[in-house]
Structure formats: C-alpha cells, structure tokens
Specification:
The chain is an alpha+beta fold. It is built from 7 helices and 8 strands, in the order βαββαββααβββααα.
Length: 221
C-alpha cells in the first residue's frame, strides 16, 4: 500500500519542497491530478514523509514516501501511471513508484520479458504479491512465477522475448539521454553511470535466467 514519489527536477524539489505538514497536501493534489475521478472525501493517507536516507542521485531531492489507506485507490493510481515514466504536474516532472524491497524488485525484473510480451499482445495482467503475474488468456485467469511457466501457457519463444526486452531497455535509455540533451541544449558523449548500471543489471538478470533455462533443459535431456 506504499508508494514512492521521485521528483525529476534539478531545482531542489519545488513545488514539493515543503515541510512535513504540507507534504500530504501536495501528494493528495498530485493523486487527484493523476486520477481525477478519485473521491476527494475518501482519499486518505495514513502517513507521508521524506525518505530518511540521502538521495541516491546527487542534486536530486529526497523521495517522498506515502501510504494510502485504501488498497483499491492505490491500485487505481498505480495502474494509471504504470506506463508513464514521467508525470507532468504543475510544470514539474515527477515519477510514482510502488515502494518495494530490493529482493522483490530483482525477482520482478526476471519476469520483465513476459510483461513486454503481454504489452505487445495486449494481454491484461497484474502483479500478485510479492512476485508472480496474474493474467487473462482465452477468457481464463492464469498465474505464473517463472518465464518457463508463462511459456507453457502462452507458447511464446523465451529467447526472442528476452531479446526484445533488452532492446526495449536500451531504447528507453537512449530516449532518456536524448531528452536530457534536448532539455539542457547540449549533447553528452556517453550515458550516465546510473543508466549504464541499470542496463547491466537487467542484462545480468536475463543472462542468469537463460543459464537457468539451459540447465533445466540439460537435466530434462
């Protein structure tokens, strides 16, 4: 039920550069901007505060952590922003993430190729807690925990889907670099370390998954 807001600005955090008493006010307005149909009276935050740890990116404001009282409203907000990397709110750029542990994120990254396939095939899906996928296929609900289980149900080629996922990650990183160059009016010769490390981590996870798949095939033979 937690969400993590990360501001993508370079000016120290405006307009969310506010004391703790005002953070909830700004977060509520942001959520109503994202989902205008949310009932104003029933939108309740159990707590809201800045992250205690320093920002991972120098010069960026600390994340804002918040807990929505209603699970249904949290799911509605996250579903709305799932495919939106950046949200423009009152002239500023923000990102909204579900606050997950590093282990959960790592396990979910390993299933990312299946999510790519679902989006390409317009298959409806959602996450189960903590790391499995629930999706609808041929008017039936299915669950899988690994790419191999998804392959058994859907019959897609794991190798080609993984390659497509890697290509998508590289294209996303290139688009982000191009947007940053346009924003500052100058070009940078190489991707920044955080983008490079992100792709390396994703690549390592996918390679690990391939090795596990090869080992399983060898055992079956």
């Amino acid at each position: 039920m937690k969400a993590r807001l990360q501001e993508q600005t370079d000016d120290g955090g405006a307009p969310l550069q506010a004391d703790t008493g005002k953070l909830e006010y700004h977060v509520l307005r942001l959520f109503r901007h994202v989902v205008p149909d949310l009932e104003e009276e029933s939108l309740i935050l159990d707590w809201t505060h800045r992250a205690w740890r320093p920002s991972r990116t120098p010069g960026m404001p600390k994340d804002i952590l918040t807990c929505l009282h209603s699970y249904r409203q949290k799911e509605l907000i996250m579903a709305t922003v799932r495919d939106k990397i950046v949200i423009t709110f009152e002239g500023e750029k923000l990102s909204i993430f579900q606050d997950l542990s590093s282990l959960t994120l790592q396990r979910r990254h390993m299933l990312q190729p299946a999510a790519t396939y679902f989006r390409e095939q317009l298959v409806r899906y959602k996450w189960g807690h903590p790391f499995y996928r629930i999706f609808e296929w041929q008017n039936e609900a299915h669950v899988f925990h690994t790419l191999e289980e998804a392959h058994t149900i859907l019959g897609f080629d794991i190798q080609s889907v993984e390659d497509s996922c890697l290509a998508g990650l590289q294209n996303s990183a290139a688009d982000a670099r191009n947007q940053k160059r346009h924003h500052w009016g100058r070009k940078k010769p190489s991707m920044n370390p955080s983008e490079s490390n992100s792709i390396k981590e994703q690549t390592a996870l996918l390679n690990q998954l391939r090795q596990q798949g090869s080992a399983s095939e060898a055992e079956n033979d």
